[in-house]
Amino acid sequence: MSGACLLAEHGAQILVLDEQPAPGGQIYRAVERVATQGRTALDRLGGEYAAGVALAARFRASGCAYWPGSTVWQVTPERSVWVSRNGRSVHLRADVILLATGAMERPVPVPGWTLPGVMTVGAVQILLKSAALLPSVPFVLAGSGPLPLLVAQQCLAAGARPAAFLDTGSPSNMFAAMRHLPGALGLPARRMLAKGLALRAALRRSGVRVFRNVRDMRIEGDHAAEAIRFRSGRAEHRVEAQLVALHDGVIPSQQITRLVGCAHVWDARQRCFRPQLDDWGNSSVEGVMVAGDAAGIGGAASAALAGRLAAFEALRLLGRIDAAQRDKWAAADRRAMRAERAVRPLLERMFPPRPEILCPADDVVVCRCEEVTAGALRQAVAQGCQGPNQAKSFLRCGMGPCQGRLCGPVVTEVIAAARGQTIEETGYFRIRPPLKPVTLGEIALLET
Amino acid sequence: MPDSHDLAVIGGGLVGSAIAWGAARLGADVALLDEGDVAFRAARGNFGLVWVQSKGDGLPPYANWTRRSAALWPDLAAELSSMTGTDVALRQPGGLHFCLSEQEVEQRAAMISRMHNATGDIGTRLLDRGDVRAMVPGLGPQVQGAAYCPKDGHANPLLLLRALQAGFRRHRGRYLPGARIERITPRGADFAIELGTTHIVVRRIVIAAGLGSATLAPLVGLSMPVRPVRGQIMVTERLRPLLDWPTAQIRQTVEGSIMIGDSHEDVGFDEGTSATEMQRIAARALATFPALGQAQIVRHWGALRVMTQDGAPIYEQSGQYPGAFAATCHSGVTLAGSHALALAPAILDGMLPDELRAFTSERFHVPTV
């Protein structure tokens, strides 16, 4: 939204394709609707959520063409875009494409994670924001990083009390992160850290049972989640819950950048692939830019700045301004970006993904769509499987309706570890269109 | 001392894996050389037909070789299943080729009659509008008829590749993936192969490297003029059983997905997809089965067939360097039975049978090196 506003305000012809029914993305999801319910409803979702009201209003007024409810299912390096809307697909062409598809939650493959009743912490938040739906059964939030704390607070504010909060962060990571503290102490970082501490304090005050240093989680249940078993300290615990929400950080959503054929690099600190970009967000494919968490996790404020920086560069690519003008206009945003970024090393060191979910045990399902276990993957490697694409053709992992979104990162990790090679050498699934399923009838009616 | 083997098969696709498995099961010491995770791999983009009715129109030995393969297929599937536990989902209920216009009906009728005269009756029949509707429910009004051949069938091509390679290892075959061939040097009666830091010496060598064959074949005095022809395939989510027979354009897998394909494009080494072909394939599928309109397409891909000028395979022993063989075709699934159970033993014997004499590259008038 930030990039589109800026571009449209400078007279560029902009079309924004949004899968959601209204502006807001993940962070400010449904912000216009919630705003109509008044200040209390907004505040329940936290102070930063309310910032979306102004942005959405500015976006609506910017003069962008806006297509909500659009599913982009093919993007080519020649900058053709195929989008499905109201049951019809159309073909668009653009001089510049800015991909701002954000992040996804890192998959958390623990035993039992495919049982009904297990979801991500982000999914709990989506239900809360878009439908004001709260868990009505005993539930547990389990994970590390800022999101579980925030969602715990949002649930409590809305009147739903978790049966337990399982903090999977490790004290040794907290300790190790402290060396990044001095570098992180800019204003945005102080705000963020203060917020985190406040959320922790609020959780403590609420009296919700909190377990620290949680590991070896296992969700139990015959047909649906009934309880979660885990270790905390030296003791083993079992908490009854019919809803278990898991979270272990977020990673860039790479389906669309892979589909286009953008080069990707491995980010060892964030432990994820991200598209290879220059300072402005240009990818390796001419005219295709990436901004926001899809470019590497930076958070909401940083995403808005990245959108603006990409927009200045897009104005240059479109021939509306020259490089000197771009640099001048972008200077303030670039400074702000540096300040925002300062806190990332600290956060990344505090909340690295746990090894047990990166390389799960043999009996844990990795590919949910085709029910492929980590053990099956390791066996394929033992038989000479070279990488994710061969694993896909032999085991069908990554061939289901989710197109490898969820298993891709884990498949690469497991194969890399089993082959004793780096993640870069191992590579990633080749992503095929359609990005999201589209009906045969719709394809037959394409005007090509 | 470099490792030595009876046979090296260059190419871990369906052709190479079938030959390697077929040779290893007879007790030969075989090395199978394959590329890495990403390569031009027809074997991963395959439609999965075991198809007889139209193969070898104008080249009777090809028709006979195909029929032989379809007849050998049940043995192949049974042996792979008992050995590796992988059921490659072979079904040979006969297959249909739908005709969507009177012109297509006439063309098909002429082909059936030509092949009947050249290679005998295998039961292929033309079904008229009424016949085909009595056989297949849910056809669209545009379907004018179909050709039915009782020998046609289908299988899961990915499971076939996996089972061949698993079976190969069971027979103590040596699988060498990620192999980049630096050099092949004929040395007396043997061949020395350099793979980066690994060297192997083999008595016999088979070039079955798909599109890579064109550049490898001359190293051992062979000629394999092949070029890529792209095919695009779409696949739906899993659906309830809708179609009992495989067809040339549409087939339902045992898992329930419907595969829709049959495109032939001359686009060089471009493995991508195109909206125009996608639309054409979809429109034809809908004209055949209107009910598929609501089916969700979950994946669409392009893959490169390995095509000769006349569409028929190349099988040949090098005159200059006996012991070196060429094997390539665009029907790696259909011909897997023949490749594993007829071609592989012949290669171990060092002599290709007369029935394969028609498949040398001499027919392209390209002089061998």
Overview of this protein structure:
The complex is a heterodimer of chains A (448) and B (369). By secondary structure, chain A is an alpha/beta fold. Chain A is 39% helix and 20% strand. Chain A has a five-stranded parallel β-sheet with strand order 8-15-9-10-11. Chain A is globular. Chain A starts with a helix and ends with a helix. Chain B is α+β, with helices and mostly antiparallel strands. In chain B, the strands form four sheets. In chain B, strands 1, 2, 8, 9, 10, 11, 16 and 17 form an eight-stranded mixed β-sheet that branches. Chain B has a four-stranded antiparallel β-sheet with strand order 13-14-12-15. Chain B is globular, with a radius of gyration of 21 Å. The two termini of chain B are 30 Å apart. The A-B interface holds A 74, 76, 80, 82, 91, 383-384, 386-390, 393-394, 396, 399-401, 403, 426-427, 430, 432-434, 437-441, 443-446, 448 and B 34, 36-38, 44, 158, 161-162, 165-166, 169, 175, 177-178, 234, 236-237, 260, 272-273, 275-276, 278-279, 282-283, 285-286, 292-301.
Secondary-structure class of chain B = alpha+beta
Return Rg of chain B in Å: 21 Å
Low-confidence stretches of chain A: none
Strand order, main sheet of chain A: write it out.
8-15-9-10-11
Which overall shape of chain B is indicated by the principal axes computed on the Cα atoms? globular
Percent of residues of chain B in beta strands?
A: 25-35%
CATH H-level superfamily of the largest domain in chain B: FAD/NAD(P)-binding domain
End-to-end separation of chain B: 30 Å
- Write down how many β-strands of chain B occur, each being a DSSP E stretch of 2 or more residues: 17
Helix content of chain B: 25-40%
> For the residues shown, what is the average pLDDT of chain B?
93
Give the termini separation of chain A: 30 Å
List segments of chain B where confidence is low: pLDDT < 50 over at least 5 consecutive residues.
Answer: none
Main beta sheet of chain B: strand number and arrangement?
8 strands, mixed
Give the number of domains of chain B: 3
Largest sheet of chain A: 5 strands, parallel
Number of helices of chain B: 8
